[in-house]
Design goal:
- The structure is a homotetramer.
- By secondary structure, chain A is mainly alpha-helical.
- Chain A has ten helices and no strands.
- In chain A, 72% of the residues lie in helices and 0% in strands.
- In chain A, helix 6 packs across helix 7.
- Chains in contact: A-B, C-D.
- At the A-B interface, helix 6, helix 7, helix 8 and helix 9 of A face helix 5, helix 6, helix 7 and helix 8 of B.
- Chain B binds a DNA duplex through loops.
Chain lengths: 196, 196, 196, 196
DNA sequence: GATGAATGAGTTTTCATTCAT
DNA sequence: TATGAATGAAAACTCATTCAT
């Protein structure tokens, strides 16, 4: 099933991991090349420059999140409660233990103020996340309030991811998930309880 | 009232503002020098290097926050509700409209993973914040739960500050304050309502 | 005969000559780059920094001396007297007229006290020299005394190299060679006499 | 008896010790100021610059050596053997255990090739030494040969001082003294024997 | 496509020196 | 005299990018 990974994909994956852990400026093209087994010059066969590559990484990440994290939230054939649980658990699974936390959040602070191309992508990512969460919460809370609740939940998750990196402890992040589930009156799942 | 600013303080203030807005790596010593009216080399009269200066800035910020943001929260002669309102409003006043948001949060994401000297200071700052908030919430919620609530509120505030920078909109951040006040059953103050 | 010089070797050769003539601190990376036809930044393609390069130069010099100056001294199929003459003449040929004298000796004085990485290499060089000389003298003088005589001869040669640079006169250095030959009862060779 | 030490003398003494141990380029004006309890700017009240100060240090050292090391060698009312012993012991006492070895020798290599003002002073120092030694040896060996012997002995002493710094062992240097005494048929003094 | 040598602009840092107080 | 803040030139080092092979 696994799609054949091209060299271009390998570059992006190395870049994504390095950007997330070391930051954009602190990651050199040489780091990226080494991270995917190419030599410095070769990276330029796939991307016209560092920024171009970073933007491709963000586009990729946006697509990936849409497919893996947010897609199911919009499937109205599934009960909202189930979709919320799926979404929260997907987000948890994605971020817990992921060194460096959330690339989008990190870049929001490192580059968001300085560069519109980055800021646009980062906003797109958070908008997607908000839309997914809002659509699930809308049935019970109405769209307007659901959007506010979604924004609040995402803000809290992002702050919690930061603290998870700082304290090497995922308790704050997990409580954020629990409270998000509670927005539809859901308790913690048995699986999550077992893990906790 | 304003204490006379030494030149060293002027360097630190320029550095603090630049670090917050442009990030650590993206701010050059030349930027800092220009920001306080010195030439590149002159900054080294006050600090042995960029990192040394950044750590002094963080130490300064920690002290400042203790005095201006967190100190009153521990004055038990004042009712907890008043102290909570004071704290939340101080935090709001500090961060709303402050370009670049929260230096500690930004550095946590840009450097926290990479450098223990920075990470220690950043943790100290957040611990101070947590302690201040927890002590106010402890009367009503008990210390254990108050600490968790404090962590959650700070995470949410940090995430909201990030989003405030990204969306140029402080609504998420203000709701975080409102919900924090609600932890002691407080409604929004007239002043805050007017601003909202 | 000449082995093809790699670019890395060209950098090292330029560095070696400059270090010997101008000293370590007084030689800039720009000097070295210019000395081998590169630009400043390009040198870092081959060496991670100035010290790294200098150590590589010393390692190179140690190897070179082993091969060109000291190797034959240990060939016991040749009479000790011939080996001594070969060694003394090789050393003379190496240092006479060589601007800057002996890189190892110079660095011993400029850096030896300050940096263990340099000091270790410099000691290795002088140990090699001592071993070569001692092994030749041992037959006649016994190992213990041969080692002392070797140390004394090397000390005198080093001091003489310094004075040769200071006075632009190689007489002191040449007498050091003559007296070393006399340790095995050898007179000066016709070639050396002609040169003197 | 001790002449009152002026600030100017204190600067020179600090500079001399630092130059000897760390070298000229590696010693900063700030180091020197700190070494004599002044502040950076104040040093310039006594010397117009670093080089000016260094030359004054060398002049001072030359005078000092004339008085303390070489003066007695020229007192023809004393037997040559006694004068030689005095000279050798004075030199030994001066250099053994003196961290950094011989300032003149060090600067000969660090600066002698590059700067005539330094080179002239360094040559003066070695000429004084040579004259002192030659005058003592002349009675027995004739002036011509005495001068050569003196040069050889000084070269050996300088090389031995370098090796003393490198190996932290004064054996080579002490043997140089013994062999110098032997030039007048002198054995090692009881005092020196006891120390050995 | 792949390589890696070379570039050159930019960054941090050092430090002898000047000068207003 | 003494200070120490400020300077400015030079040094070490980084790194995205180019390009001949």
């Amino acid at each position: 099933m696994a799609v054949k990974k091209t060299d271009r994909d390998a570059v992006m994956e190395a870049a994504m991991n390095l950007f997330r852990v070391k930051g954009y400026h602190h990651t050199s093209m040489a780091d990226i090349a080494e991270g995917c087994g190419l030599l410095k010059g070769s990276v330029y066969h796939y991307f016209s420059g560092k920024k171009d590559m970073a933007l491709a990484v963000l586009d990729n990440l946006i697509e990936d999140a849409r497919r893996k994290l947010f897609a199911e939230a919009k499937d109205t054939s599934v009960p909202a409660a189930d979709r919320l649980r799926t979404l929260v658990e997907a987000v948890e699974g994605y971020f817990v233990g992921r060194e460096g936390g959330c690339l989008m959040g990190n870049l929001a602070l490192e580059l968001g103020n300085a560069d519109a191309d980055f800021a646009n992508r980062i906003r797109t990512y958070f908008n997607d996340w908000k839309d997914a969460l809002a659509v699930v919460l809308a049935e019970e809370h109405g769209m307007k309030r659901a959007e506010a609740l979604a924004e609040d939940a995402i803000a809290r998750a992002q702050g919690a991811i930061m603290m998870m990196g700082l304290y090497r402890d995922d308790a704050v992040f997990r409580r954020a998930g629990v409270d998000t589930l509670a927005l539809l009156g859901l308790g913690t799942s048995p699986a999550a309880k077992a893990a906790a």
